[in-house]
Amino acid sequence: MTALVVGADKLGNIPDILNEEGITDFIHWKGRKKGMRNMTIPKNIDMVIVLYDYIEHNLAKIIKKEIKNIEVPCVFAKRSVSDLKIQLEKCRECRKCVKNM
Q1: Strand locations in the chain, DSSP E?
Q2: How many CB atoms lie within 10 A of CB 71?
Q3: How many domains does the chain have?
Q4: Whole-angstrom distance, CA of residue 9 vs CA of residue 70
Q5: Residue 59 is assigned to a structural domain of this protein
Q6: Residue 66: inside a domain, yes or no?
Q7: pTM for this structure?
Q8: What are the pLDDT tens digits along the chain (101 aa)?
Q9: Helical ranges in 5-75 per DSSP H
Q10: 78 lies in which domain range?
Q11: Which is a Pfam family this sequence falls into (predicted)?
Q12: Are 77 and 83 in contact (CB under 8 A)?
């Protein structure tokens, strides 16, 4: 499973949590610069994870809008291991848009 992680300059222990959750590959966008607004969400991802306390505000809005069009699960979490685990669990339980989690 591949995820796009948006936000935070450094991920710290987050890659370990992603591996525990079955996300074996990820793309990381720091999300702090205005130029990131022009980037396109890759087609080969299975999930988007937005670390909302470390992201440029308008980029968060753009990602939220684009996610609706590509129909992949999206998790908004703080940049903390505990909050990310909670949000990923909620996403797994919801299963509305999750195909292969």
Answers
A1: 2-6, 25-29, 47-51, 74-77
A2: 9
A3: 1
A4: 26
A5: yes
A6: yes
A7: 0.84
A8: 899 999 888 898 999 999 998 999 999 988 776 666 778 888 889 999 999 887 887 888 888 888 888 888 889 998 888 999 999 998 888 766 544 44
A9: 14-20, 57-70
A10: 2-94
A11: DUF2325
A12: yes
In sign, the C-alpha dihedral spanning 29, 55, 16, 41 is negative
Give the total residue count for the chain.
101
- The two tokens of residue 3 are 């995820």
Residues 6 or more apart whose CB falls under 8 angstroms from that of 9 comprise: 30, 32, 54
Could you tell me the two tokens for 97? 């848009």
The one-letter code for the residue type at 82 is S
Please check whether residue 18 lies inside any domain of the structure.
Answer: yes
- Domain containing 25 — which CATH number? 3.40.50.11900
